[in-house]
Amino acid sequence: MKARVTVMPKQTVLDPQGVAVRDAIHHLGLPAASEVRVGKFMEIDIDDAAAGDRAALEGRLHALCRDLLSNPVIEDYHLELDAR
Amino acid sequence: MTRDDIRTAVIRFPGSNCDQDCFHASRDEMGLQTGYVWHKTDSLDGFDIVIVPGGFSYGDYLRCGAIARFSPVMQAVKRHAQEGKLVLGVCNGFQILCESHLLPGALIRNRSLRFVCEEVGLRVEKSDSPFTNACHVGDVLRMPVAHGEGCYYADDATLAELNVHGQVLLRYVDAKTGQPAAGSNPNGSREDIAGICNKEGNVFGLMPHPDRACNLRLGSDDGKRVFESMVRSLIQVAHKEEVMELAE
Question: Of A60, B11, B229, B231, which has the fewest Cβ atoms less than 10 A away?
Answer without folding.
Answer: A60
